[in-house]
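ok here's the first one, seq then struct tokens
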Amino acid sequence: MEWLNVTAESGLWGLLAASFLSATVLPGGSEALLWGFLKLHPGEYGAALLLVTVGNTAGGMTSWWCGRYLPRWQRLERLPHKEKLERWGSPALLLAWAPLIGDALCLAAGWLRLHWLPCCLFMALGKFVRYWLVAQSALN
């Protein structure tokens, strides 16, 4: 089990990178990494929770940015559920953490030109709650 001997500093950098990549279309399991890291380094709870939330939110905002700079083609104006996202607006990004739909929500929010700041705040809140629940399970 020598390979499990991860220093807190290298583990925190790894969590930041993994959480960022997990928020993109690349597959990732940042929740499992957070859980394992906290089992090894429970004293790093606050730093780990902050870094995975920041990293995952930055990845989501990268998707938002990509959507923002997609051209608004006429045929895309007829997307199903477009009106629902426009109606709910940035609070819909509380679900940005959800598998499969989270990336699409972030991309769509950018494409719909929803303001970046509320999108970022709602996205961060949803992601924080998810990681907080994972972190709590690791400490119990």
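and now the second one, same deal
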Amino acid sequence: MLEGSLYPIMNYMAFQKYISYVKPDIKQYINIMAVETSNLAADDGALVIGYQEILNRALNQERFLNEYPKSNRVQQVKNLMNNYTLYTFYGLNNTPLFDYETNKMTANAQKGYKAVLQRNSSEDSAFLTKLEKFMDIVTEAKFEKTAAVEKWLEQNVPVSDYANY
């Protein structure tokens, strides 16, 4: 039960024993969802996993979408990817990327994002390419949410494009 709503969380870990019987896209989907359901990313409007984990999950989702564009699970993974895009560039109400009072970017996000960008090539990842450009803008703004940062976000990651209404 979250935010006054009750909903089931499927135990995808239980499906792991069937992985050898399903197609590669479903295998990858089960793996993605097993991670999601065994360790939720958010709870009560707050992130409960680290920033590097957010990016790693988003990269797995992006990889799925690139490798299996015709899978019948594309829409579910797109919805997840949309959530992780918002978590990455905005945070959540109770864990904003930029502090509400100081407008400074969370230090853990700065470290986590830099570490993932150093470890991974953005060459094959539209998500990492966007994150790299974002970090350039934010670094230039001394990690403050300035008008330039807000403008970049509005132009490149508009909330309306990623919110699952």
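notes on #2: Residues 15-162 form one domain. The beta strands are 42-43, 46-47, 91-92, 95-96.
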